[in-house]
Write a structure and sequence with these properties.
Collagenase (Catalytic Domain)
Length: 315
């Protein structure tokens, strides 16, 4: 970012794109005393994501860390086999940020967009800094689709499965946003966007996230290679968007939930290295240790680095 001058030279902001200016303003927000103060006094610091004491919402509902999300049509039979776009958290990682703005109260203000980018930067700075090889670099693509759709009303049809309930609320505005971005609806459009930014950013991995004020089945969830999050962040509040985003990014790369209410167990084959979930609160000695996959903290247990696929054989 910047005008290509000598290291440490002032940034010529007139040469920046709108994406770069938004990223720079978010970075400056993170340097402010008010931002740092909000982080030091954040609500529910250290609390488990499960909300087991009834005083706060669960990070996930239905004991499901990952939902199927938008349906993806099969590849043509004569086409190349689809490759996972986010197999491991290593190297250069492209992150697509889709800030969906609707009419009236569904509009995403400039200050809210700045806050979202700052929170994403903060959350991913933690995940990048936790990599033993210090080899993780996040690069961003920001989209700001404006759509005219009203909010979803009513409830899913009786008897709808869990995936259909998520889709009932997400599909209308999500597909409207994809159309405004020039992509086809559903999972195929999402996959095309992720593949595009992966190629454009020359990244080893890529995923995306939709931020919205539209009504959702749940306020934050992972659907394979993409996330969906409400700006309001339910009872956790906007100053915890960074840790919620980091936690959900963990799911993109294969890390499981570790808090008791998720229904976790100490078995399974999770993430890039296929390791069991040995820090699961339901079965680990003493309930396990603090971890971003268990609670609202900047901690990481010994298993999560393997789930994420960090390069761990560092001399």
């Amino acid at each position: 970012m910047g005008g290509g001058g000598a290291p440490g030279a002032p940034i010529n902001e007139e040469e920046l794109s709108s994406q770069e200016r938004l990223g720079l303003s978010a970075f400056r927000m993170r340097l402010s005393d008010s931002y740092k103060g909000a982080k030091s006094d954040r609500a529910y610091a250290g609390a488990e994501w499960g909300g087991g004491d009834g005083d706060r919402p669960r990070l996930h509902r239905d004991e499901r860390a990952v939902v199927r999300g938008a349906p993806i049509l099969p590849e043509p039979e004569d086409g190349p086999a689809p490759a996972p776009e986010a197999r491991r958290l290593s190297g250069r990682v492209a992150v697509g940020i889709v800030l969906v703005s609707g009419p009236g109260r569904l509009a995403m203000s400039s200050s809210q967009k700045q806050k979202i980018i700052a929170e994403i930067q903060n959350g991913l700075s933690y995940l990048g800094g936790a990599a033993p090889a210090r080899d993780v670099t996040f690069v961003y693509d920001i989209k700001e689709p404006q759509i005219a759709l009203p909010d979803t009303t009513g409830e899913p049809p009786a008897g709808s499965g869990i995936d259909a309930q998520y889709e009932f609320y997400e599909r209308p505005w999500r597909d409207g946003a994809l159309a405004a971005m020039g992509f086809q609806p559903g999972g195929n459009g999402i996959r095309s966007y992720i593949r595009q930014i992966k190629a454009e950013k020359r990244a080893q991995a890529a995923y995306c996230c939709f931020f919205t004020h539209y009504r959702l089945y749940h306020f934050a969830y992972c659907s394979g290679s993409y996330l969906t999050m409400s700006y309001e962040n339910d009872g956790w509040g906007v100053d915890n968007l960074d840790r919620v985003f980091a936690h959900e990014t963990g799911h993109v790369f294969g890390a499981p939930d570790e808090y008791a209410e998720s229904g976790c167990n100490c078995g399974g084959s999770w993430g890039f290295f296929g390791r069991p979930n040995l820090n699961c609160e339901n079965c680990a000695d003493g309930g396990g240790v603090s971890c971003i996959m268990k609670r609202n903290s900047w901690d990481m247990c010994s298993e999560t680095p393997f789930h994420l696929g960090y390069v761990t054989n560092v001399a």
